[in-house]
């Protein structure tokens, strides 16, 4: 397998960071995600602090970064796949989970293993996330992993009254909205057309303040696509330092769970990133479980350049 290219803006002794483009659509776009193997980083000096981890996304030009305690992952006993502790950061701080960061991390681990289909696990916020990565085009992988169960509820009137005007949406959008929790809660809001979705331009400051007040990650606005199994979406999450996410895998999983519960739709393709010039797609298939609605998600990831960043 060919290896990603490398450049060293801060010299040969900088922090090694691999850029992985997560959830490409037809080989293009995707969300650039910084992946750091902290075992390799240890060779550049003392262990990273959380403040240094927060700086990596800005230095790498990405919205998110994932930090693996051991980039190769310790091998479990029996039939257990390798596992690696993973932590996710934006410039605002640590996240309990990150779907496209998980896609990026699994592709990174598969490239390191370099032996065809790769089964692996991540330890995220105290729970195991198992997935697999299948090689595709050079340095690309089809990555699938299972989320935890999604919980759904009706939004409160306070939530709708605060958030819908900030999104520039009418109160009529309220009846189809849901609050979905996967790691953290977020508001799912439908709009009727893709043109209405494309026209949204919420102000980050007020939206961040409202989401912080309500304890929400952000707002995931979606619209119907050409078929009932394909939708378009945009994720606004300024309270975690991301004005608009190129792709949001966990919110796509939340939407899949909602559409299964409401309409019986078992599988969807979610197109995101078009407003940002980074076309991205997530496939999400939900099923009914004992404690909620677990979802399997799939995205294509491609390894990019390796940077050397200052610490």
TrEMBL record:
Superkingdom, natural source: Bacteria
Gene Ontology CC annotations of this record: cytoplasm
UniProt protein name: PhzF family phenazine biosynthesis protein
InterPro entries according to UniProt: Phenazine_PhzF-like (IPR003719)
Pfam family, one: PhzC-PhzF
Source organism per UniProt: Streptomyces populi
GO MF term set: isomerase activity
Stretches the record annotates as Disordered: 26-53
């Amino acid at each position: 397998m060919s290896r990603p290219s490398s450049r060293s803006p801060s010299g040969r002794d900088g922090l090694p960071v691999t850029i992985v483009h997560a959830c490409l659509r037809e080989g293009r776009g995707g969300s650039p995600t910084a992946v750091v193997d902290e075992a390799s980083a240890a060779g550049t000096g003392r262990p990273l602090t959380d403040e240094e981890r927060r700086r990596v996304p800005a230095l790498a030009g990405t919205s998110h970064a994932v930090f693996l305690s051991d980039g190769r992952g310790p091998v479990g006993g029996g039939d257990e796949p390798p596992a690696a502790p993973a932590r996710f950061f934006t410039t605002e701080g640590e996240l309990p989970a990150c779907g496209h960061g998980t896609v990026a991390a699994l592709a990174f681990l598969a490239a390191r293993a370099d032996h065809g289909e790769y089964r692996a696990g991540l330890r995220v916020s105290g729970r195991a996330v198992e997935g697999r990565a299948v090689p595709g085009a050079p340095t690309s992988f089809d990555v699938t992993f299972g989320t935890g169960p999604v919980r759904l509820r009706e939004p409160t009137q306070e939530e709708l009254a605060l958030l819908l005007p900030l999104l520039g949406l009418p109160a009529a959008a309220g009846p189809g909205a849901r609050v979905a929790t996967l790691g953290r809660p977020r508001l799912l809001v439908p709009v009727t057309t893709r043109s209405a979705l494309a026209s949204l331009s919420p102000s980050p400051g007020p939206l961040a303040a409202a989401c912080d007040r309500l304890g929400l990650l952000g707002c995931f606005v979606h619209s119907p696509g050409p078929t009932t199994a394909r939708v378009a979406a945009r994720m606004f999450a300024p309270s975690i330092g991301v004005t608009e996410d190129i792709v949001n895998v966990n919110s796509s999983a939340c939407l899949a769970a909602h559409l299964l519960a409401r309409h019986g739709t078992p599988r969807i393709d979610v197109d995101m990133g078009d407003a940002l010039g980074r076309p991205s797609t997530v496939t999400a298939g939900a099923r009914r479980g004992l404690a909620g609605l677990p979802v399997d998600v799939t995205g294509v990831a491609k390894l990019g350049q390796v940077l050397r960043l200052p610490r």
